[in-house]
Fold each of these.
Amino acid sequence: GENVEQHPSTLSVQEGDSAVIKCTYSDSASNYFPWYKQELGKGPQLIIDIRSNVGEKKDQRIAVTLNKTAKHFSLHITETQPEDSAVYFCAASIYGQNFVFGPGTRLSVLP
Amino acid sequence: GAVVSQHPSRVICKSGTSVKIECRSLDFQATTMFWYRQFPKQSLMLMATSNEGSKATYEQGVEKDKFLINHASLTLSTLTVTSAHPEDSSFYICSARGPGQGANTEAFFGQGTRLTVV
């Protein structure tokens, strides 16, 4: 089955700096890769996603890149703000079924 | 994005009793709903997948008689934790996705339910 790894497990950055979180997956059939932000005591919130027919997607300060050959995808957050502090999860899925999540990255943006 | 409402957000129950958690998709029809369990500082672990009108598919190691899932309509799925024990205390989260493949693959999450069994 699918296995998703995520690094780093914790990440601290200064406000205004960029943050990068990387994930790898094992199943080449996976074709949908969402990223979720989870704040303490709340459910995950979809922040961006990418499908296997696209190499990069951007939404304001957030971007995601996908390398299908290497089976890895990354989340990039630019101009970080304190409210970006949360736990971020990547996931891999085949057509939206059987989501497998990474272990999460705790991002702290220091003012 | 689409809205998924989960209720209650917190519940405390006595050991041996049952607790029902509701998950509703408010602005779309959810043909598939997922139930997850999350322990502190850990990732989401899929418990079961439910498709409207059919029996849920449980992940290995999840007791289907203990965690009853009903997905009777396109907007509502329920998870009932039966004969709850303290080790069932956890954060339970549902997610829902609409019909079709390809374009409609997003899954949206509820707010989660913190269950404490005393």
Amino acid sequence: EAQVTQNPRYLITVTGKKLTVTCSQNMNHEYMSWYRQDPGLGLRQIYYSMNVEVTDKGDVPEGYKVSRKEKRNFPLILESPSPNQTSLYFCASSLRGLANSNEQFFGPGTRLTVL
Amino acid sequence: GQQVMQIPQYQHVQEGEDFTTYCNSSTTLSNIQWYKQRPGGHPVFLIQLVKSGEVKKQKRLTFQFGEAKKNSSLHITATQTTDVGTYFCAGSAGNQFYFGTGTSLTVIP
């Protein structure tokens, strides 16, 4: 089944404790992206990747890191989480970069709480 | 920076009534996509519009892209309870996506 998976689905952590949220897609998609969703703000793009070893900042990259060593995986890293990073996080992928714009397939989401 | 505003933020309608959500960008967009997110779920792609003035229909849903490629709308005719959810527009400029703030639709049976 074609899908985007994220782990963990739920995470409660404390300020400053490094964490990684994994994202994997099995559709051979080139474009992958991370979003955070907060009430009243919609989805805001954190980082995106056009292909392996190519990553770029989105609208709200501060406090986050990403890597794209393999085509299928795009982990989101919070080196030192803070309470303002408490949010619902979505990973998404699409076949090509946005110039050819294809639909984005979203993962199920990761609800992160930073105490 | 790039902004995509969406109105209204909330809409309650009686089943059978029509519903419209509007999306406005501060800059010209390459294209616009629409997504639906059910409560507790993830965004699901509905459609993409690329051309200036483009209109597309999917059963009871009508999507429009403005002539200047800075605004878009989604209209649902005769809403049903299955239409409940939050509708997002998402415009692309360069390689980034800019999502609207979403319109949460409640349909009262």
Amino acid sequence: GDSVTQMEGPVTLSEEAFLTINCTYTATGYPSLFWYVQYPGEGLQLLLKATKADDKGSNKGFEATYRKETTSFHLEKGSVQVSDSAVYFCAGFSGNTPLVFGKGTRLSVIA
Amino acid sequence: DAGVTQSPTHLIKTRGQQVTLRCSPKSGHDTVSWYQQALGQGPQFIFQYYEEEERQRGNFPDRFSGHQFPNYSSELNVNALLLGDSALYLCASSSTGETKKETQYFGPGTRLLVL
């Protein structure tokens, strides 16, 4: 079945550092891909998405590009802030499959 | 515009009991999905409701059941609770569009503790 493989954390960065969280997706079809963020004690918030190859999703300084050839959707941010500390989940679905999540990557940003 | 709402926020039950969790979808959405998120894990799909019927189901036992009402709100019922059912239960809503590539929006979750 479909699966999402996500870089394991935790990741600890200093403020203004560059962030990359890797994500790859295995599917029989062409998936829609998402990044969700979960702040402590809260539910999931949609961060960005891409629905076809070469799409770039972006929001709040975060970006991810859907690379069809590698089925990757790596999350990047040029300069992280303390307020970005959270757990980030890569997710996707294709066709009629339900949304599949990665295990999550905990990011801690220190001042 | 209210987002996805869930109730209650927290719940404590004992083994063998039954629990009902509730979800109201985002305005304009007609599809509700339920997920179980164990501590330190990603959400796992339980089932999805559309037009008051279960449309898809994940790998969860029959103890987990649900319902969708005409106003698109939904309930998740869990019978014969086990310690392992302790988790954050997330509801997500979406709109079934023509492209089928609908985005799911999540509620804040209900944290269930089974003692």
